[in-house]
């Protein structure tokens, strides 16, 4: 009998993962998952300090240029996207708009 050789699954290895947080759509849970996974030392987490609205542009560019794998947890926008040779992946978690609004209303009460 001829044995079929299994082809390995393709591996997607972005150098940088950008996670755009959406309020009331599981963002706190995702943040906890990223923090737990980062304990293994395989990547760093870059997010704005408390009471600061965003990450400094230079800090983001530094992360994009470094050899360290990075998860950027932030809403950010570049008018002219930087040209980098690193692979960047984006992830968003969204929720049904009505359920999200209802949850936000109950949370704010």
Structural account:
One of its GO terms (molecular function) is sulfotransferase activity. It is found in: Golgi apparatus membrane. It is a single-pass type II membrane protein. The chain is an alpha/beta fold. It has one domain (16-108). The protein is 30% helix and 16% strand. The protein has helices spanning 27-38, 57-65, 97-108; strands at 16-20, 44-46, 70-73, 88-92. Strands 2-3-1-4 form a 4-stranded parallel sheet, with helices on both faces. The mean pLDDT is 75.
SS summary, helix count: 3
Q: Assess the beta-strand content as a share of residues.
A: 15-25%
Radius of gyration: 18 Å
The chain-level mean pLDDT equals 75
**Could you say which overall geometry the principal axes of the C-alpha atoms support?**
globular
List keywords for this structure.
4-stranded parallel beta sheet; 3 helices
